[in-house]
Amino acid sequence: MIFVTRANEPLVLKDNKANWLLDYLAALKTHKLNPTKSSKEIVGQKENKYRQVEVKNVLKIMFADKCAYCESYIGHVSYGHIEHFMPKAKYPKHCFNWGNILLACEICNGAQYKSVFFPQKKEGGPLINPTKEDPSTFFPLNMIQLPQPPMFWVKMQEVLQLKNYLALIDLN
Ligand SMILES: [Zn+2]
Q1: Could you tell me what percent of the chain has a pLDDT over 90?
Q2: What is the value of pTM for the model shown?
Q3: Ligand 1 centroid distance, CA of 60 (Å)
Q4: What was the pLDDT predicted at 156?
Q5: Three-state SS at 7
Q6: How far is the CA of 26 from the centre of ligand 1 (A)?
Q7: How far apart are CA 31 and CA 25, in angstroms?
Q8: Residue 7 CA to ligand 1 centre (angstroms)
Q9: For residues 71 and 49, what is the distance between their CA atoms, to the nearest angstrom?
């Protein structure tokens, strides 16, 4: 995981995000009041507006076609996911927030790893957004090729936490 400078916001997002968000939040509200199959589908349609070719293309250039978390090359074997750092399921207001959008591989964004995982400090977090903070400043390790456990993204501010991490990946 390395620091990545965020590219300029894709125009399609910049121009539409305010309206998309209003529509999405309204659909969520309607669904919450009276959940039906149809209201759920509408939420999905409104939510998925971020899935634009232009957004994906800018992310691919910005992340050099690599996953924001594990740095695996994405383009050769899959399409990659437009990933919400703060999960949209928990933070719908950040669904179209460019600063919240990353490129991730299907494994890191899958249910076993990042998915909707977003721990707060008391839960072992917070996570590192590689476009906002330099991950290397949280790891005093520079010689170990780390595998890809979920804890890789967690800020290691305490020695104890680091020790636990090393135990987790079986390096101590
Ligand atoms: Zn990955």
Answers
A1: 54
A2: 0.78
A3: 13
A4: 44
A5: coil
A6: 33
A7: 10
A8: 20
A9: 26
Question: Ligand 1 centre from 81 Cα, in Å?
Answer: 10
Using DSSP, state whether 144 is helix, strand or coil.
Answer: coil
Domain count, the chain: 1
Pull the structure tokens for residue 168.
């987790």
| Distance in Å, CA 113 to ligand 1 centroid | 9
Helix axes 11-33, 37-47, angle to 10 degrees: 160
CA 169 vs CA 29, 33, 137, 156: distances in Å: 42, 44, 20, 14
Distance (Å) from CA 150 to ligand 1 centroid = 10
Q: Look up residue 150 and give its two tokens.
A: 């979920």
- Distance, CA 106 to ligand 1 centroid (Å)? 7
Residue 150: give the domain boundaries: 11-168
Q: Is 137 domain-assigned?
A: yes
Tokens of 170: 């079986």
In the predicted structure, residue 170 carries a pLDDT above the cut 60: no
| Cα 162 to Cα 166: distance, rounded to the nearest angstrom | 6
Query: What's the 69 CA to ligand 1 centre distance in angstroms?
Result: 5
- Closest by alpha carbon to 51, among 77, 7, 81? 81
2 within some domain: no
